[in-house]
Design goal:
By secondary structure, this protein is mainly β. Helices cover 3% and strands 37% of the residues.
């Protein structure tokens, strides 16, 4: 049942901007996005984070300059890309804010401010962007509502409640539009929720389907849970999925199990730490791949793999490629029946937990002393933030390489205890101050950009950041470039996609953890990105400051959208 919640504020209109009539977004446009627009979070359904534009290239990127900026008025971590549709740009910020701008000038068109219940709070005050369909803009509110806004005015078209914040469910991802449905998943893996993914009719807000990420008794996979553990088993689905148009299959990532310590919930615990393949019409689970079973390290596998075909043993594999949070790079196969096959996996950062990986199934075995448990402390690498957290990798079809925003040489330790479950409260088996974090003694760098040849299965080049982790999503372009922020020094940089040579940089107002995007208007290519440091990068930076002399404790916060073009 649709609810027009009292907590959604009216859109606030600003002065009119010189943009033309809004162009409706259709299924055909989402299937084949125009190069001059950026219609979805990662640029296309395959999740490539790739722009086909090449006006800005390796020869002239040194001439890139800011052409306009826009202050959002919000602090904390800004994690959404600019979404651009024929002159309209949409960005989101913490505290449930959406802003529409003229993509040429930065003139504000409208602003929407959602208002949640006063008693609501969430672990991460985050929003990762909007989705578009027809003449609407769709945004998942942190407190659990899905809201449809008129793209031209920002007025609320409909609101429906998806998540129950009182039991710890909330929403942080950008929705995914698939065949007239708006697909979302929930956060809350640290609160003992039972994760799910759900789809809603884009015109009415009526629920079309809902799929739980933990099976109930009698459903496939339920045998991997003990007793009633499944009811509070975690498996939040808090990042946007990717979509295979040809087979009508949605690929969605699933997070950690709850509580964190596997000895408190024996079994493989499907479908935690997995990728799910879902039927786009019904939400039925067609297949899955679990990256590690009985997760005890808080290694969410929340990002869906990129849909990238690759060559292996003389054949073309309809592929899925994923740099996993557990520190391994996975090559998987999209099978016609919806199943997900294992092809290969290699560590891309230092990882000391896996003893082996089955070459046929991809199932790992563990070193027993690296598994934390209840009353059992264990040290492990990488730390719970993983070889790569949520920031997006990218694929460039011209180079045949993927680009990974990796973090190496950091480790952690955990020791579990039994915590009483209270609905909506932290329930992991460890208190936040007791989460251990260390760095390897011989570490000379931490953050990286890695480039891998997907056919050869080999790393081609690496850029090392000695004085920062890398919390920035990658954008790669047909101009032979890789763009990345992600460092605590507030820099935004461009690299040669084939060699890794740095070609350009600029210091922005804050650290950048939002994905960049590229678009073109009136024959001019732009690169756009939100600066705005905060949340986990800021927290982790503070931990490193306690370990490394001279490491800065904090980076300036405050959201500013930066838009660049070639100097003319």
């Amino acid at each position: 049942m649709i609810k027009r919640t009292l907590f959604v504020a009216a859109a606030l209109m600003a002065s009119a901007a010189s943009v033309e009539a809004y162009t409706p977004v259709t299924d055909a446009r989402l299937t084949n996005p125009e190069p001059h627009n950026w219609l979805m979070t990662r640029g296309n359904y395959k999740g490539w984070s790739y722009s086909p534009l090449d006006q800005i290239n390796t020869n002239n990127v040194k001439n890139l300059v800011p052409v306009w900026t826009f202050a959002t008025g919000k602090r904390s971590g800004h994690q959404s890309p600019p979404i651009v549709n024929d002159g309209y740009m949409f960005i989101t910020q913490p505290d449930n804010q959406v802003i529409a701008l003229d993509a040429r000038t930065g003139e504000e068109i409208w602003r929407f401010q959602g208002q949640g219940p006063e008693e609501f709070s969430a672990l991460h005050n985050t929003n990762r962007g909007v989705s578009l369909y027809d003449d609407k803009v769709y945004v998942a509110m942190l407190y659990g509502d899905l809201v449809a806004l008129d793209a031209k005015t920002g007025k609320v078209a409909w609101t429906t409640t998806v998540a129950n914040w009182k039991v710890g469910e909330y929403m942080t991802m950008a929705p995914l539009t698939v065949k007239g449905k708006i697909v979302v998943g929930i956060s809350g893996g640290e609160f003992g929720v039972r994760g799910f993914i759900a789809a809603y009719d884009a015109k009415t807000g009526q629920q079309a389907w809902k799929t739980y990420t933990i099976p109930a008794p009698g459903e496939p996979g339920s045998e991997t849970w003990r007793g009633d553990d499944w009811k509070r088993g975690g498996a939040a689905a808090w990042m946007t999925g990717n979509y295979d148009v040809e087979t009508n299959t949605i690929y969605w990532g699933v997070g950690n199990a709850s509580p964190w310590f596997g000895d408190q919930r024996p079994g493989d615990n499907l479908y935690t730490a997995s990728t799910l393949a879902l039927d786009g019409d019904t939400g039925k689970i067609k297949g899955h791949f679990q990256y590690h079973w009985n997760d005890s390290w808080d290694w969410d596998e929340m990002n869906a793999p990129m849909l990238v075909d690759f060559q292996r043993d003389g054949r073309t594999v309809r592929g899925l490629i994923k740099p996993s949070r557990n520190g391994y790079l996975h090559w998987l196969e999209r099978l016609q029946n919806g199943a997900i096959g294992f092809v290969d996996a290699k560590p891309y950062v230092y990882q000391d937990v896996f003893a082996s990986i089955d070459p046929k199934t991809g199932r790992p075995t563990y070193h027993p002393d690296k598994i934390p448990g209840t009353g059992k402390k264990a040290h492990f690498c990488p730390s719970l933030w993983g070889g790569k957290d949520w920031p997006f990798e990218a694929y460039n079809p011209k180079t045949g390489m993927i680009y990974i925003p990796a973090n190496d040489n950091h480790c952690g330790f955990l020791e579990g205890k039994v915590q009483e479950y209270v609905a909506g409260k932290w329930w992991t088996g460890v208190d936040i101050p007791d989460i251990g974090f260390t760095v390897r003694k011989d570490a000379k760098s931490f953050g990286e950009i890695q480039a891998w040849d997907i056919n050869a299965g080999k790393k081609v080049w690496t850029v090392l950041y000695p004085n920062s982790m890398n919390w920035g999503s990658i954008l790669t372009t047909a101009g032979g470039l890789v763009f990345n922020g992600g460092t605590q020094d507030r820099m935004f940089r461009a690299y040669d996609a084939r060699t890794g040579d740095q070609l350009w940089q600029i210091k922005t107002s804050s650290g950048i953890i939002a994905p960049p995007a590229s678009y073109m208007i009136d024959g001019v290519q732009y690169i756009a990105v939100q600066a705005g440091w905060g949340v986990d990068p800021q927290f982790q930076q503070g931990l490193l400051a306690n370990l490394i002399p001279g490491w800065p404790k904090a980076t300036t916060e405050g959201g500013v959208l930066w838009v660049f073009a070639l100097q003319r």
